[in-house]
Design a protein that fits this description.
about 450 residues; alpha+beta; Potassium Channel Kv1.1, Chain A; Serine Threonine Protein Phosphatase 5, Tetratricopeptide repeat; Neuraminidase; four-stranded antiparallel β-sheet; 17 helices; 18 strands; elongated; Kelch_1
């Protein structure tokens, strides 16, 4: 093939001339037909070019004409920054995958935060899947840097809406996506205000802090001057007020926030050393993604056998026992500020009670009395908005140390015990309806347990 290429350059036995960008290149038709389906179709089908000896190709850049023709003879080409994109386009036009992929691999090695968006779009246009995937990965990793770059403000609406729609973009908080949208719109506000509804619609409102939502509603002209956007942010605020409203919606945080959204938090507990009880106030967080523990702010008092539940962006704890007494007090932890604040006391001091969050409130059932090992049948609900506890219907029978599960608008309690003796274990299952404030016995468990 190298010898054939030498003959081509010397115009020996050539039977056609290819003109690219004003330059002429003598060629052998049979070599081009073997290398390119485009030329095979051109020279063998019933087309007017079949018998022509002079063919002009206007699609291919004249800067790479010689290199492309030489590649069809030798299978080798020198790809550089200046010619890589032209070679991809030539390979795509001539239907030569190996030529296109050689240049695409070079472009992949040059990817950075400044060019990855352009090269991603270029890869889509010319069907370079590996280059497109690599560009998308870099876009996801570098979204915040990209959104701050000057060229981001010049991107088309179609590109911006595609970027902010991606689950995979790496952000430390959803506010970074919102800021990017505002930055793009405010660059040309008159022309771009028409896109604000669709762009804001891509923001995961439930991942924004309530303070950000409030600030946008009161201080951001783009939002409070637009009724549709205002309603979007009001609905976002309602999610913070009524977090259970998210349960039936097919929505999720972005991947980078999904990981941090699922931490394991240990709150209090008892550490017995040499038969001496040591009730803990420490709070620790475990991140499964990086396999690390870290300490959070301590509770105001040590507690064990308490109830804990997540409501909105706060963790609520109540009851349990300390080193010297059974608690009726409660407190809440702010995930945003890493602080504990006291809440109203329960109407009964309880330990080993069952508790869960339901309809944005804290439900507590049963548990043991403060003074003895006799279980309560009473239940109460805490309203975070009013900071008040109120009694609700009592269980059909007393129980403590039972299992608890919330399903939609009901709370199910499984087993437990009604006293501290071995024969006080329970196998019954009861269901509490929040809407009806009523209890109903369900099929008991096959085995008693607590």
């Amino acid at each position: 093939l190298d010898r054939l290429n030498s003959l081509r350059k010397e115009n020996v036995l050539c039977d056609a001339v290819i003109q690219i960008g004003g330059k002429t290149h003598p060629v052998h038709k049979n070599v081009l037909c073997a290398a390119s389906p485009f030329f095979r179709g051109l020279f063998t089908n019933d087309m007017q070019e079949k018998n022509q000896e002079h063919i002009e190709l206007q699609v291919i850049s004249g800067d790479v004409g010689e290199e492309v023709i030489s590649f069809m003879y030798t299978g080798a080409i020198k790809v550089e920054k200046e010619n890589a994109q032209d070679i991809v386009m030539a390979g795509d036009f001539l239907l030569i995958p190996s030529l296109k992929s050689a240049a695409a691999r070079f472009l992949e090695a040059t990817l950075n935060a400044e060019n990855c968006v352009f090269l991603r779009d270029f890869a889509i246009r010319y069907n370079c899947s590996a280059l497109g995937e690599a560009a998308n990965c870099l876009i996801d990793r570098s979204f915040v840097d990209i959104s701050r770059a000057s060229y981001f403000r010049e991107l088309s609406y179609e590109t911006v809406v595609d970027l902010v729609s991606r689950n995979e973009i790496n952000v430390s908080k959803e506010e970074e996506v919102l800021t990017a949208i505002f930055r793009w719109i405010k660059h040309e506000p008159i022309a771009r205000k028409q896109y604000i509804h669709s762009l804001i619609g891509k923001v995961r409102m439930f991942s924004l802090s309530k303070y950000t939502i409030q600030e946008c509603l009161y201080e951001e002209n783009l939002i409070f001057e637009d009724p549709i956007c205002t309603q979007m942010f009001i609905e976002g605020l309602q999610i913070h007020l009524f977090p259970d409203s998210m349960l039936n919606k097919l929505i999720r945080p972005r991947d980078s926030l999904w990981d941090t959204a699922f931490m394991i938090i240990l709150i209090g507990g008892e550490n017995r050393l040499n038969e001496a009880s040591n009730v803990l106030s420490i709070v620790q967080e475990y991140d499964p993604k990086v396999n690390k523990w870290r300490y959070l702010a301590k509770m105001k008092c040590g507690r064990a056998a308490h109830i804990a539940a997540l409501i909105g962006d706060h963790i609520y704890v109540a009851g349990g026992f300390g080193d010297k007494s059974v608690h009726g007090c409660g407190e809440k932890y702010s995930i945003e500020t890493n602080e504990w604040v006291g809440i109203a006391d329960m109407q009964s001091r309880r330990r080993f009670a069952a508790g869960c969050a339901i309809n944005g409130k804290l439900f507590v059932a049963g548990g043991y009395h403060a003074e003895d090992w006799i279980a309560y049948s009473s239940c109460e609900i805490y309203n975070p908005t009013s900071d008040l506890w109120c009694m609700v219907s009592s269980m059909p029978e007393p129980r403590a140390a039972c299992g608890v599960v919330k399903i939609e608008g009901s709370v199910f309690l499984f087993g437990g015990e009604k006293g501290g003796r071995p024969n006080d274990k329970l196998g019954s299952v009861v269901q509490y309806s929040v809407d009806n404030d009523s209890w109903e016995l369900q099929r008991p468990m096959p085995e008693v347990r607590s």
